[in-house]
Amino acid sequence: MPAEDPAEDIVYTTLVSRDTLEEHLQDPRWVIIDCRFNLADPEAGQAAYRENHLPNARYAHLERDLSGSKTASAGRHPLPEPQVLARTFAAWGIDGATQVVAYDDAGGAMAARLWWLLRWLGHSAVAVLDGGINRWREEGRPLTAEIPRVTRGAEFALRIDHDARVDSDFIARNLAAQQSVVLDARATERFAGQVEPIDPVAGHIPDALNRPFDRNLDARGAFLPPHGLRNSFRETLGNTHPERVIHMCGSGVTACHNLLAMEIAGLAGSRLYAGSWSEWITDPARPRACADPDR
Fold it and tell me: pTM for the complete prediction?
């Protein structure tokens, strides 16, 4: 969705349509990032990118580019160090005048991570391609195997939004004070602890609510309209103010999808628990809830 900047150029801050992006494929002020990634096969996304991608798209690897170094107390996809991430963005040609568009083949599940990271570092002109490469391909729009060369240098101005995220200590304090609502984007079966294909411990944070991120999408993988998203979130959150909502998932990736969907719905101001469940369970003293007590 567009917003107007002071220069009266259109800036896209949540979603961009396929028609609009096709009009800007050769626009030097636009940077397109392919975020395809498969948790079960970490190199599959880059292999797919090398086979074909949108013209002029760079590739962002979830674990090498959009995540930091793992530690014993961190989740599976910890946030990168801001200075390192800023250098990555600059290397892709992103500066203060750049419109960034991220896409993937998973309904925006991976692209939303880049959307959130850019906003975290102070760059608001970033949007997710609605429908991703799947709808783009179905409609016969241009694809290429040519790897673009970044010919212009960029200076990425680092302006960290410290209010965009919370840590595990904040979540722990919230369990006692109940001043925030934790919204978990994982599939219902994982949230309940009935299955756990990735993390060593099943379950969820006590009192968290569950809203799988795929509820944000229609049957063809595009986002629901703003009013539909707003109604859907209200069904889960009631009249909870967006600033009281904390998003999480397994590792802080698909949680960004719910955060993006709330922005689209006009419910701005919610925050991310980036460590999410995979970080929470690194400390056995932290409380856990599970529908299956044997897990």
Answer: 0.95
